[in-house]
Every structure is written in C-alpha cells, then in structure tokens.
C-alpha cells in the first residue's frame, strides 16, 4: 500500500503509477532530501515532538541510506513515486515504525520546496565557479591583446577600428552581469520553506530557525502558502541561465564567422574542432555551433516553467512536478557549455596581422577624418558630408582613405593638411578614444582592473 493510501479502497492503476512518478528525474535530489530529513529529525527530537532515541536512530539510518545511495547500493522504485517517498520507504523498511515518525509536522509540499531550493543553491555555486573561471580566461586574453587592432562592426559592416582586447571585454562585462544576477538569485533562494506543511503550517512546535541554520539558509519563509507554491527562484535561475547562454551564443556566432576563410581572424585549436565525413579539408567550429544551438534549449526550459506556473491557484498543484525536468535540463546544459567554451577560447589562435588588415579595409577610419575636420573648425554635419564624398572617391579609385594623396584629399576639403595621415592611422584611431569604456589601451586596462575587482565581489 502507498504511504498515503489509507483513504483509498483500490490500488492505483499501473499506468497512473508510471504517469504520476517523478523518481526518474527527481532522484538527483537524494542528497538534499536526506540532508533535509536529517535536520528535520534532529529538530523533532530536540523539540520533544518525537523521542531523542527515535530521532537519533532516524538520523543514523538516514546517514547510512545516503552512503548506500552514493555507493550504488540502493535502487529506487517507480511505485514509491518520488525521491521523498522512496527514502521514507527505505527508512521504514530498515527501522520499522520508528521511521514512520520522520514525517511528523511535514508535507511533501514543503519537503520538495526545500529540496529544490537546496539543489538550486548548490548548482548556483557550481555555475558561479565555472563562469568565474571563464571570466578569468577572457581577462587574460584581454590583457594580452590591448594592441591587437581589429575592425569593430555595426550591422555586420566595418565601422571603426578597436582592439581585440576591447571586444573581449564587452563579453567580460556581460558575464559579470550574469554573475551579479546569480548572486541575487542565490540570496532569494536562500530562504527555507520547511515548516510550511501542505499549505497552512502545523500545530507541532517546530523550530524552523534551527533547521534553517543547520541547512545553511539565511532565513525562513514568512507565509506558508507562498512557501510551498513559490517557484520564482527556479524561474529566475532559468532566466539567468538563458542570458548566460545568449551571451555565449553571441560570442560563438562571432567565432564561427571569424574562423571562416573569409575572415581568418582566429584559428580554432584542433582539440576543439571537428572534421567532415566527406570533405577532407574541413575544420568545423562544431563546439561554437553546438553552444549556439543549445541556447534555444535553455530558452525552451524557461518558457516551459513560466507556462507551467502561470495559471496555478494557491497553493501546491501537481502541475508543479513539471518544474524539475526543465530546471535540471537548463542547469545541465549550461554546465556542459561553459567549460567547453572556456577551453575553446583559451586555446584558439588570434591572427593579429589579419585582424589589422581587416581594420584597414572598409573605411573604418572615416569617422576619424570627420573628427579631424571638426578639430580644424568644420561643423560636424559639413565634415560628415565631406568625408562621405571622400569615401565615394576612394571607393571608385579602389583605395583606402589613408592611401589617397594629399592633393586628392584637398579636392574634398581645403582644411586637410599633411598631419591627416598620422591622425587617421589605425593606432591613432584607437588610442585617441581613451574615454572611460573606450578601446584605447589605457581605457581597456582600466576596465580590466574594474572587472577584476567585480569578479572578486561576485565570486561565491
């Protein structure tokens, strides 16, 4: 008979058992479930709700079950539905009626809410570590390439010269925001729901604060209805993970382009590339492509969670069992992608000369010609028009702007002098932009310094 089967006259249909069961996926919560049960049992004994002798036997046996599970000596059963009932069933099989006392003052509703919060806290810490390591890799890359000039783009058209360091630091800032969000999500997850019961608490004198302290929670939930029905933290984490994947996907898309024969800005390491089954010359950026593809998978998990929760009245409903697979898959996907992305960018070769040549093409220094004229007293809108005519002339002549002769430039504006060549060199274009947040070496090194400080703050 089911542990909850006293009210029922008929056994559950086998197909319903399979349909209702979540042990296939929630068994990964075994450590959190057993650890939470140990803290609950200890509190029950200290509060005199059950005897200290029973409390100690339950704690001892739960610890043994945990060891057995970790050593592969326990096989969970679909008939027991979920990880909570499986653990309790094993406990009762080992110590009899004493094991039946464990669930005093507790419901599966607040039990699962506890387990998921504990699991999410653990996973946030792991993801924080992985992201922090990736940020460290990118910071190292940035410091190595403060003078590696490349074209910056808008609309995928060459726009202005920047440095590879500056480009990399854009992603560092994205990932730092991701770390910041994870920190906030951890704080909001770090609230213990156990003691909420099914929805209305319990008449037993539980010491919720003691359990929270033992389990490492910062506080306890202040409303029992919300305590069992809240999955905001799971949705928030999945949203954070979606943003992380979006950032990795954007960078992956650029690396895919840059590693193509048309760009050749970077060369992927053999260890992070694959070949073709028919074309022997191919070296495919499959790691970047898979990360780009898996991003949609995490987005799907977020939308599924939002959809599951959108129409659920208070308090707990069985729909909420659907939270786990999507949450777990999003976490697993990010934990799979971040380390391999880290390995990919840390081993790729940056082709500095080709990047520089790329910056010299496409009239990337056109804005600097306009700025040069403005500094000579020409109104910006007039300068803009002048440079537009210069670009048109250079384009027809199949020349770069700095390849035009002085006389050719003067035909466009009498304000242009010999000093223009120095003013619109690639190095001058980059180093002249030394404002906070700019691509000049001094500005990038300052942003690196700030990023290193923030990384220390966000590391958990």
Please provide a written account of the structure:
- Helix 3 (30-46) packs antiparallel against helix 4.
- The chain has 19 helices and six strands.
- The strands form three sheets. A two-stranded antiparallel sheet has the order 1-2. Strands 3-4 form a two-stranded parallel ribbon.
- The chain folds into three domains: 12-104, Fumarase/aspartase (N-terminal domain) (Fumarase C, Chain B, domain 1, Orthogonal Bundle); 109-147 and 161-205 and 216-354, Fumarase/aspartase (Central domain) (Fumarase C, Chain A, domain 2, Up-down Bundle), CATH 1.20.200; 358-458, Fumarase/aspartase (C-terminal domain) (Ribonucleotide Reductase Protein R1, domain 1).
- 61% of the residues lie in helices and 5% in strands.
- Strand 1 and strand 2 form a beta hairpin.
- The protein has 460 residues and is mainly α.
List keywords for this structure.
3 domains; 5% strand; 6 strands; 460 residues; Fumarase C, Chain A, domain 2; Ribonucleotide Reductase Protein R1, domain 1; Fumarase C, Chain B, domain 1; mainly alpha; two-stranded parallel ribbon
């Amino acid at each position: 008979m089911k542990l909850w089967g006293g009210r029922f006259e008929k056994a559950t249909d086998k197909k319903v058992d399979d349909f209702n069961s979540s042990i296939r996926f929630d068994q990964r919560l075994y450590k959190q479930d057993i650890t939470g049960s140990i803290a609950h049992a200890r509190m029950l004994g200290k509060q005199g709700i059950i005897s200290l002798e029973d409390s100690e036997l339950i704690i001892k046996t739960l610890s043994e079950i945990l060891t057995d599970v970790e050593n592969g000596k326990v096989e969970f059963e679909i008939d027991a539905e979920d990880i909570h009932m499986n653990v309790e069933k094993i406990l009762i099989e080992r110590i009899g009626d004493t094991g039946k006392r464990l669930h005093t003052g507790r419901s599966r509703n607040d039990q699962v809410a506890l387990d998921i919060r504990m699991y999410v806290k653990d996973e946030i810490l792991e993801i924080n570590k992985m992201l922090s390591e990736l940020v460290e890799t990118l910071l190292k890359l940035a410091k190595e390439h403060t003078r590696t000039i490349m074209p910056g783009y808008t609309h995928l058209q060459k726009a202005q010269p920047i440095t590879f360091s500056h480009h990399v630091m854009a992603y560092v800032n994205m990932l730092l925001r991701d770390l910041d969000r994870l920190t906030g999500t951890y704080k909001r997850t770090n609230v213990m729901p156990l003691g909420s019961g099914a929805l209305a608490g319990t008449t037993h004198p539980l010491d919720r604060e003691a359990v929270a302290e033992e389990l490492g929670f910062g506080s306890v939930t202040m409303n029992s209805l919300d305590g069992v029905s809240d999955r905001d933290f799971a949705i928030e984490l999945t949203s954070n993970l979606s943003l992380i994947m979006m950032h990795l996907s954007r960078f992956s898309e650029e690396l895919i382009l840059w590693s193509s024969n048309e760009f050749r800005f970077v060369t992927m390491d053999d260890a992070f590339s694959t070949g073709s089954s028919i074309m022997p010359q191919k070296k495919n950026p499959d790691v970047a492509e898979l990360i780009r593809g898996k991003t949609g998978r995490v987005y799907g998990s977020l939308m599924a969670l939002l959809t599951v929760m959108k129409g659920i009245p208070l308090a707990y409903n069985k729909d909420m069992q659907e939270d786990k697979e999507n949450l777990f898959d999003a976490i697993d996907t990010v934990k799979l992608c971040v380390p391999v992305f880290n390995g990919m960018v840390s081993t790729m070769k940056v082709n500095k000369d080709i990047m520089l040549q790329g910056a010299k093409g496409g009239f990337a220094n056109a804005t600097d010609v306009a700025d040069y004229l403005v500094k000579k007293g020409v109104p910006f809108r007039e300068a803009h028009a002048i440079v537009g005519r210069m670009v048109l002339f250079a384009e027809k002549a199949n020349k770069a702007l700095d390849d035009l002769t002085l006389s050719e430039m003067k035909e466009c504006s009498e304000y242009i002098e010999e000093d223009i060549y120095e003013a619109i060199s690639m190095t001058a274009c980059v180093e002249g932009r030394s404002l906070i947040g700019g691509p000049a070496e001094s500005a990038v090194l300052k942003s690196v310094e700030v990023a290193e400080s923030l990384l220390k703050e966000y590391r958990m």
